[in-house]
Amino acid sequence: KVKAKDQKGKKITLKMAKNCIQISSDGGLRLDLSKMGITTFPTCILKLADVDELDLSRNMLKKIPSSIKKFQKLRWLDLHSNQLQELPAAIGTLQKLSYLNICNNKLTTKGLPEELNLLKNLCILNLGLNCLDSIPTTLGALKELQEVSVFDNALTNIPNSVKKLPKLKKLNAQRNPLPDSTKPEEDVDSIKRMETLCLVQEKDLCCSCLKMCQDERDKVNKLTNVIPSPSNNPSFSSLLTPNSSAKNNQEEWRLK
Fold first, then answer.
1. Is 187 part of any domain?
2. Is residue 218 part of a domain?
3. Is residue 97 part of a domain?
4. Which pTM does this prediction carry?
5. In this predicted model, what pLDDT tens digit does every residue of 116-166 receive, in sequence order?
6. Residues 181-236: pLDDT tens digits?
7. How far, in Å, are 117, 148, 175, 254 from residue 167 at the CA level?
8. Which domain holds residue 167?
9. 144: CATH
10. Which of 70, 75, 173, 253, by CA, is between 20 and 30 Å from 145?
11. Could you tell me the CA-to-CA distances from 50 to 63, 70, 230, 253 in Å, in that order?
12. 185 in a structural domain
């Protein structure tokens, strides 16, 4: 009997739900039913559909009903850490929604309704810790998105329509089997290295500096037939024409 009761989860009454209403930081109404051991969506809260924020996180919900569409004033919806495998198409009717957190569920790509692209005011979307193997390209229609999290999924690609969202400031795609991203970092590093190379013309040097460069160049010319060992590479930091020795003798070096 105890096990059967646990499987049903905690029953939420209207009175209990009313006692969970808080005033949010911006003066709106927030219904906080997080960490309540809920296994099924409590239909009684449909009578409280005028709230601005709804928190059902850290429960055991497996399904969100289409009746969620009654929460037309909703700006903030937190469903993270449940057991959801899909979202209802009706979620696309929540036109005022700016924050949607469905992290740490069991959502698959097929479980994301196409109607998500109707949430035109959505600024923050968290899809991390799910079972997604791709991101719908239609999310590129959400022009107000500023933060997108898709970490800890099975993604091999991020659509350009998402990466090029006009207001996107943060895209967290860590711990996905995406293509190796080390090459771009190497390219950036090589560019940084090139920033230390400075070329000047003879006319821009003072007499003493010009003489010093010419002396160094004369030393290089004397060493043209000598192959420096890896441990004894001469450094000619003030050469007027860097790598001149290599240019003049590269064919000879290849032969040796």
1. no
2. no
3. yes
4. 0.68
5. 999 999 999 999 999 999 999 999 999 999 999 999 999 999 999 999 999
6. 533 333 333 333 333 334 545 555 566 666 666 777 777 666 655 555 555 555 54
7. 16, 11, 24, 53
8. 14-172
9. 3.80.10.10
10. 70
11. 21, 9, 75, 81
12. no
